[in-house]
Write a structure and sequence with these properties.
The chain is mainly alpha-helical. It has one domain. Strands 1-2 form a two-stranded antiparallel sheet. It has one helix at 2-24, and strands at residues 49-50, 56-57. This is Nodule Cysteine-Rich (NCR) secreted peptide. InterPro entries: Nodulin_late_dom.
Length: 58
Amino acid sequence: MDEVFKFVYVMIIFPFLILDVATNAEKIRRCFNDAHCPPDMCTLGVIPKCSRFTICIC
């Protein structure tokens, strides 16, 4: 009986994890220099920079 509950639990949680990763993937901005980072990405007063991993960070 525990196995059934575990299976159902996993089948409920797993799709939500996949959806979360899929929707947050849009927030990752690729860049080659600081000019490629959008200025509205960060909060006021914080300037976005291009990291060495070619990802925009605040």
